[in-house]
Amino acid sequence: MSGVAPNQAQDLAWLLRRLGEEVPVIRGSVLLSSDGMLKAAHGFDRASAEQLAALASGLFSLARSAGTKFDDSNEVRQIVAELKSSQLFIAWAGYNSALAVLAREGADPAIVGFEMARLIKAVRPFLHTPARPPAAVGDRNLAR
């Protein structure tokens, strides 16, 4: 249970769907690896889910850098961005993973954050993303 196999992405999507059902102000959510790869999504088409995963990864990385510089820790619990008509929540979801949720304007951040934390705590081992193996050194002749 140290990571999620590729065939488990669909299993994780139902968790995100359930989160959206429990908190109706949620427009959609994505589970992503720390390097921005989409692991599961609900409420978005594939292209939008992949774009949100990449954006969430970038914001999470910036917050970690800020923490390292100004807080003596790279631990990030949650990021909240208020957009014109939406709120974006990004939370650490386990080893090499994050959960991003887009909620409607007027959503109560305490409720959205609480429900995200509850979901993450309940299933954290299944949300982990194993570290990627180093890239293999290819044949030099192939690069020519």
UniProtKB/TrEMBL annotation:
<dbReference type="InterPro" id="IPR004942">
    <property type="entry name" value="Roadblock/LAMTOR2_dom"/>
</dbReference>
<dbReference type="InterPro" id="IPR053141">
    <property type="entry name" value="Mycobact_SerProt_Inhib_Rv3364c"/>
</dbReference>
<feature type="domain" description="Roadblock/LAMTOR2">
    <location>
        <begin position="13"/>
        <end position="103"/>
    </location>
</feature>
<dbReference type="Pfam" id="PF03259">
    <property type="entry name" value="Robl_LC7"/>
</dbReference>
<protein>
    <submittedName>
        <fullName>Putative regulator of Ras-like GTPase activity (Roadblock/LC7/MglB family)</fullName>
    </submittedName>
</protein>
